[in-house]
Amino acid sequence: MKETVLLTGYAGFIGSQLLRDLIREGYEVIGIDNFSEGSSEENFKGLEDDFHPLEYDLADPDIGSMLKDHNFKKIDYIINCGAQSHVDRSFDQVGKFIDSNIKGPLNLANLALDPDWGVKRFVQVSTDEVFADSPQPFHEGSIHTPQNAYASSKSSAELFLRNYQRAFDLPLIITNGANTYGERQLEEKIIPLTIKRIMSGQKVPLYKTPAQRMWLHVEDHSSGIINAMQFGTVGENYCLAPEPENELYTEQLVFSICKLLDKNFHDVVDLVEDRPNYDLRYFMLNEKANHKIGWIPGKHIEEELPKIVEYYRDKFKE
Questions:
Q1: What angle do CA 304, 6, 235 make, to 5 degrees?
Q2: Angle, to 10 degrees, between the axis of helix 301-317 and the axis of helix 190-199?
Q3: Rounded to an integer, what distance in angstroms lies between the CA atom of residue 136 and that of residue 282?
Q4: Which residues pair with 213 in a beta bridge?
Q5: In this structure, are residues 272 and 205 in contact, taking their beta carbons and an 8 Å threshold?
Q6: 216 and 241 in contact (C-beta within 8 Å)?
Q7: Which of 16, 46, 12, 10 is nearest to 31 (CA)?
Q8: 149 versus 313: which is more confidently predicted?
Q9: Could you tell me the end-to-end alpha-carbon distance of the chain, in angstroms, rounded to an integer?
Q10: What architecture does CATH give domain 4-183+215-244+283-299?
């Protein structure tokens, strides 16, 4: 009998990759998504008959009743990938981020604690941004010092869920992922945004102060989350970061995209003022994930970027 995974955010960027990978690994998947920003039916096109898609807002606490209404009786694993994730938007839409990124995980935790469902592990998909300006490099023991509303909401969820784990034995595992890139990403993110603006003849906004990010391919991120679900220890968190050579200044990334599109970097970039509390570097270690859950990221940004640029170039031509 197939094991069942309740996957939230299945119509989003990382969630739709998880959906593909979980189906491929033979799990029965129940998908929940509220179809807000970042969610799209295009992201799971062709998979409609391979899982159980449900439209539902996790801020509504009555998840269990909704699932019972659809005749579901057992859940082996929960992966919470549903989240509001855009930093700039988080300052102006704090309520949405609290509903999605704090209330949602807590409602799922209550579901996981109900013994009738039989949940073995609850995986909370979080971010390296919770560590923000902690001393570099980030690792599982780094302190949380979030610098924006998005990161604060994700950090708050981690703190609440850890309280549930210690007080009520929530079978919690947390993953902290690096900046992720790949196909089906929201167009306001830097790679698709840069490509779309160049193709439409618009300037690409770039913050004046150089910043460094580690770039993790969405397929590697998905495999790390699934490994954490399968092999992780309850109560632990795992940093999912690429190898150090995948760290780039944002300017380097945009320059490479310009080169692939045969455009001059200085002709297309518009330097803009830094956003409030702008984090200049996220550098994270992955040794624990390597050794404890057997996760080794295999993709490199320099090799993958030409494929990703081609994907979005074709997409934006349509």
A1: 85
A2: 50
A3: 8
A4: 248
A5: yes
A6: yes
A7: 10
A8: 313
A9: 42
A10: 3-Layer(aba) Sandwich (3.40)
pTM for the predicted model, two decimal places = 0.96
Mean model confidence pLDDT for the chain: 94
**Res 37 pLDDT > 90:** no
Residue 87, pLDDT above cutoff 70: no
In the chain, domain spans: 4-183+215-244+283-299, 190-210+246-280+309-317
Residue 171, preceding bond cis, omega within 30 degrees?
no
How confident is the model over 265-289, as pLDDT tens digits?
Answer: 999 999 999 988 888 999 999 999 9
pLDDT digits (tens, 9 = 90+) for 109-120: 999 999 999 999
Query: What string of DSSP letters covers 120-172?
Result: -EEEEEEEGGGTTTSSSSB-TTPPP---SHHHHHHHHHHHHHHHHHHHH---E
Measure the CA–CA gap between 156 and 24, rounded to whole angstroms: 33
Instruction: Retrieve residue 120's tokens.
Output: 């073995």
Alpha-helical runs (H) found in the chain: 13-24, 63-69, 87-92, 94-98, 104-113, 149-168, 190-199, 218-231, 250-260, 265-268, 287-292, 301-317
- The half-sphere exposure of 89 on its side-chain side, counting CA atoms within 13 A, is 13
CA angle 292, 297, 301 (to 5 degrees): 155
Please check the confidence at residue 90 and state whether its pLDDT lies above 60: no
